[in-house]
Design goal:
This protein has 7 helices and 14 strands. With 289 residues, it is of the alpha+beta class. It has 2 domains: 190 residues, 2-Layer Sandwich (60s Ribosomal Protein L30, Chain: A), CATH 3.30.1330.100; 58 residues, CofE-like fold (Alpha-Beta Complex). The protein has a 7-stranded mixed β-sheet. The chain has a 3-stranded antiparallel β-sheet with strand order 6-7-8, covered by helices on one side. The N terminus is likely disordered.
């Protein structure tokens, strides 16, 4: 039996120690025996460092292409670009001065009970479509986009020490489409763009990346009706590939690495317009809301 190849990981020479991951997709021994698996490919994750601060009105496409040039990297046909929403929100001016927010008495009282900033609570309520849970100092809301997350996705990290808050992009799909269009003009070919944010998850500790905007690829891969190597017909297997790619990119972007974007190279995707709404479970079929 040949030995199974291990996933390779090496330091990126372009980003101060931030890792570039190479993931080898290798079938299990049982699958190799019974069913040949076609078109297995190597997937690379290449972080894109951006040292300067993004300001309102900046072109994300220009910033990323310039950063790639400095790093002696470039986008290639077939790549997927994953971008953290913070630089998109900054470029779109989605920054709020917390000094301009007057919290309601309700927000002040609840924030005081849990040592929170009442202005952030007030802003989260204003940005929400509905409050899902408010307990033990945790505010879970449904955003205007339909996302279920803490504090309507409002963030105060990586700004200016708490004086301003960052909102989600107004329309993340539109943002992804615009970046994709700008990159096509600069590079000559269109690549899918995924915009991400970090959310918590029910029943699990820790944050992970979620896709919140997409353009140029199908966010789901539907295996229903296909047969597995043992002859079983799949009935409920729909894979959220956009979220999986978001998580993969999060491994190399990190929280403090100043690498707000990542190239995913070698992942086979289905090209289409794409919309993030396809990843949102309707309330009627949500067993936990």
């Amino acid at each position: 039996m040949p030995r199974r190849k291990a996933a390779k990981r090496r330091k990126s020479s372009t980003h101060g120690g931030s890792p570039e991951f190479t993931v080898l997709q290798v079938p299990s021994p049982s699958v190799r025996k019974k069913t040949p698996v076609p078109s297995l490919t190597e997937i690379r994750l290449i972080p894109i460092p951006v040292q300067e601060e993004i300001k309102s009105g900046d072109s994300i496409a220009n910033k990323l292409v310039e950063s790639l040039r400095k790093s002696h990297e470039r986008l290639e046909r077939g790549d997927i670009l994953v971008i953290k929403h913070k630089i998109v929100s900054k470029a779109e001016g989605q920054v709020v001065d917390l000094a301009m927010i007057t919290p309601s008495p309700e927000s002040v009282e609840w924030a005081a009970q849990h040592d929170l900033d009442p202005r952030v609570i007030e802003l989260a309520l204003r940005e929400s479509r509905a409050v899902i849970r408010r307990q033990n100092g945790v505010l879970i809301t449904q955003t205007r986009h339909g996302f279920l997350c803490a504090n309507s996705g409002i963030d105060i990290s990586n700004l200016d020490g708490g004086q301003h808050a960052l909102l989600l992009p107004e329309d993340p799909d539109r943002s992804a489409k615009q970046i994709r269009s700008d990159l096509k003009r600069k590079t000559g070919f269109a690549i899918p763009v995924i915009i991400t944010d970090s959310f918590g998850r029910p029943w699990r500790e820790g944050l992970t990346e979620f896709a919140i905007g997409i353009s140029g690829m199908k966010p789901l891969r539907d295996y229903r009706g296909r047969t597995d190597p043992h002859g079983y017909t799949l009935k409920a297997s729909v894979e959220a590939v956009a979220d999986e790619l978001a998580c993969a990119a999060g491994l190399v972007c990190g929280k403090l690495n100043r690498a707000p974007a990542c190239i995913v190279r070698g992942f086979p995707y289905k090209a289409e317009t794409g919309r993030i709404h396809d990843l949102l479970r309707p309330a009627a079929s949500d067993l936990f809301r």
